[in-house]
TrEMBL record:
Residues 120-233, 363-473 form the Phosphatidic acid phosphatase type 2/haloperoxidase domain. Residues 1-20 are annotated as: Disordered. Residues 1-13 have a biased composition (Low complexity). This is Phosphatidic acid phosphatase type 2/haloperoxidase domain-containing protein. Pfam families: PAP2. SMART domains: acidPPc. The lineage of its organism: Bacteria, Bacillati, Actinomycetota, Actinomycetes, Micromonosporales. It comes from the Bacteria. InterPro entries: PAP2/HPO, PAP2/HPO_sf. Keywords: Membrane, Transmembrane, Transmembrane helix. The keyword Membrane applies. CDD domains: PAP2_like_2. The chain crosses the membrane at residues 37-57, 95-113, 120-138, 166-184, 191-212, 218-236, 283-301, 337-355, 362-383, 403-421, 428-446, 458-476.
Amino acid sequence: MTSAGPSASAAPSPRDDNRVLERTGWSPVRHFAERSVLGLLVVIAVGLGFGALLLLVRFHWSPLQSLDHAVADGLNHQVAGSDAKVAVLQQISSFGGRVFMIALVAVVVTMLLIRRRPRLALYLVVTGAGALILDPSLKTLVGRLRPVVESPVAHAPGNSFPSGHALGSMVVYGMLALVLLPMFRARWRPWFLALAGIIVLLIGFSRIALGVHFLSDVVAGWLLGIAWICTTAYAFRVWRREAGHPDEPVLHDGLEPEAGPDLRPAPAEGAVLPHPWAKGAEILVGWVLTFGLLYAFGYAVTRWNPGWDDGVPRWLQTFRTPALDDLSWWWSKAGDTHAILAISLVFCPIALALWRQWRPVLFLVLTMIGELTLFLTSAAAVGRPRPGVEQLDGQMPTSSFPSGHIAATICLWTAIAIIVMARVRSPWRWVFPVLAVLMPLGVALSRMYRGMHHPTDVLGAMLLTAAWLTVLWWTVRPNARAVTATEAARESRQLVGA
């Protein structure tokens, strides 16, 4: 019976609230009310702006139609006829594409779950899913056709209003900015927000300049995206309060300010490389020596040109069938630039989230940069012709020696295996050495089957990988101070607690 007294007295009461107000004054309450009213006004203004645009487009208001067509025609005249401008605009537009943004959000969500921030991960999933639902629904409701310009330079399926790229980029880059803001120091946060804003603006401009959206489509997408972010951010704030976080973060603090230590990439890591200038010189010397080895080997096999070197692609050609052609195409794509870059861009942030060290990421980045530069310079210097068989991939811009597909595949999966084997204790870690063998083997067979490379081109790729990874192993030391994910999290918590 006596234990009930303290617990009952610990419960908050109106009198306690009055004492808090007497001690702190009404300033916190006033500031909270001001922020809430201001946020409400912003949401109302943005919602009214989108609603007005929706009605004007739906009822074909002549002044807006004239403005839309004038802007579309003017930009089309500036872009049409310039392949370089079109290529740049399409690349910018791709950063607002659905596939790219879903992959980006998936990587960040994975990183947040690894860092034990499930509430922020769920916020990203819910907010992003809402944008995916809003875009096609409103497009179907309005049913606006896409612009018709004099010289089309791009095409897009579906209706025009609102712009899915504008809506999606505003939501995705906006919510990522709110979530990741606490990882930056105060002086860098305005620059981070400005960068996100510039990306959104450029994506919207690219859609108008490519002639696939009107100006009002893009502005409507931006307004709807802002309204949706404000709505979900307010819901997240209510969720925080219900979870026991009475402090209300302002915009420049991000959605969850206390997540800052967990969001920072490597809070407990010291210097990534001691004596970086000396290490840079060592890496440069190693690159030059590797290039010398490649050039010497490439010069020898080009001048020697053994008969069996052309015989293997000719022999593999006898097995060609439509089914094997398709299979070899897929294996070959596993080693092209897009696949290698995609795997690298997924692995690096996840590795950083798991082990909270920049060194393994630096090792992989230097591996792939070195592979690309060594391949391009060696191919240009050696100038070896392709095998004298039918080449299923057609004319290639580089020479045959060494194989870029095979070198990139070996470098990527070998570097990942080196990183993982030192940091993972589970038996599943052996999957990566197996991939480091199977992936290059499949790519090598497919490239020779398709008539694109000699066996000695494959040997050149293996020489490139062995020499370059040896250089980086001794200079970068990727597994120095290697820790497991559990040990890395413990070190970071100890640093924050100190």
